[in-house]
Amino acid sequence: MSSKKLSQNIYEYRLKSFIPKSPTFYAILFVAIFLFVYVDNVYSNSAQFVDLIGHETVEEGDNAQTDVSTKPSTTNNDDIFSTEKKVEAEDEEEEDEAETEIVDPLIPPKNVSREERIAWFRSQLPELQILKSSSISQQFHSRVVTFLNGGCTMLFFIIWLSPAQSFGKRDFLTMDTLFKAHPQGCLLIISKSMDSKRGYRILKPLLDRGFKVYAVTPDLPFLVKNTPAEAWLEEMNSGNKDPGYIPLSQNLANLIRLAMLYKYGGVYMDTDIIVVKNFSGLRNAIGAQSVDPVTKQWDIINNAVMVYDINHPIVMDFIKEFASTFDGNRWGYNGPFLVTRVIKRVGNKPGYNLTISPPEAFYPVDWLQIGRLFKKPGSEAEIRWVESKLNELCEGQTYAVHLWNKRSRKLDIEEGSVMAKLVSNHCVVCGDITKP
After folding, report:
1. What is the secondary structure of 201-219 as a DSSP string?
2. Compositional bias (Polar residues) at which positions (predicted)?
């Protein structure tokens, strides 16, 4: 008799000799197994949450949140883009209730002195997770690399530091029109709140259509490492630097876009943009917001759309300027006015190969006039103006239309307006976004 058959016989003999013949025993055994399975299932559901992007089950740690993380070492690209997992209704309700209570800790109190604001900021530091690394954020680079290994014609990214519940239809429109013009592009959403179940549900209409979009929790210490902003971040984390009265999230978004461009290259865009043309013809480009009426030369450059190669020297110049001149009490100082003063100072150095695109490229409509794009034409003259403006935006030098969110976010998109026609011609998912 072979050793394998002998071992099998020994196993079967021990199993048979161990099982009693009493019916009562079988009844007790059945009840015990049922209770064990039930308790184990309840415990598992309460101790874990589902990774909707990576299709893995992730253990909740001390900081139990709805953040979703993939593990690139064990997750292939098909896993990243798969959308088969569904969110249970009770999980959605719990998450909704939790997110409605979120208060942005980066908004300082009003009407306080500099010393009082610094003291307030120091007291908030333990809650400001974005300034530090976490177990999830430390996966940032590997997750980004895994995502990009899936292949794409062009890398885009946006930044969202607000709660996911405030990511609205107009913000979605930026992504929608981006993929209309770049169906093979990749879009990274740099956001802790969108890297979640709620964020997944927001992105699902795009994922279901096969578009490559991925939300990932940023790691700010990693992004600024080996740059002048590393010392700036250390000073902020010390609690001795004034963040200013402007919400710190605005200035962090200014810094993160620069760090992302330097480390990865690609295209940065704000979330109040409608893309109307493919960006493949742009390289190392930034757009002028306005032109001096006398000299006909640009006078203000905006940072709402930027296209740069990886490790481009002008982006490092921007980061140096941010770290050395940071002022959280002057609106735009660390954003549009920063890129303006740096480019005015350094010019187009040899090897920089900068392109300053005209206002028509990204800012074809002045912020004071943006409301007109949303209005329904009320006369034959206005109908002709709508058609003329639409032709100008779609057939001219314009790549994207900046909507100046502070001015337009509460406006309805009226029937027959320029906005209504732009949305209709340049969206993929579309949907009803006429109301803010």
Report:
1. HHHHHHHHTT-EEEEE---
2. 63-80
User: H or E element: which one contains 18?
Assistant: helix 3-18
- What's the token pair of residue 170? 């107009």
Helical ranges in 182-312 per DSSP H: 197-208, 220-224, 229-238, 248-264
**Pairing label, strands 212-216, 285-291:** unpaired
Sheet of 186-190, strands arranged across: 212-216, 186-190, 155-159, 266-269, 298-308, 285-291, 355-357
Joined together, the tokens standing for residue 220 give: 């700010």
Contact in structure between 159 and 269 (CB atoms under 8 Å): no
**CB < 8 Å & 24+ apart, contacts of 125-129:** 125/237, 125/239, 129/63, 129/192
* DSSP string computed for 320-361: HHHHHH--TTSTTTTTHHHHHHHHHHH-S-TTT--EEE-HHH
Distance (Å, rounded) from C-alpha 142 to C-alpha 136?
11
In 3D space, the residue among 262, 347, 378, 356 whose CA is nearest the CA of residue 305 turns out to be 356
What is residue 196's DSSP assignment? B
Distance CA 82, CA 256 (A): 28
Measured CA angle at 96 (ends 93, 97), to 5 deg: 90
Whether residue 268 contacts residue 312, with contact meaning beta carbons closer than 8 Å, is answered with: no
Give the max Cα distance, the chain. Answer: 103
The whole-angstrom separation of Cα 372 and Cα 417 is 8
**What tokens were used for 222?**
């990693």
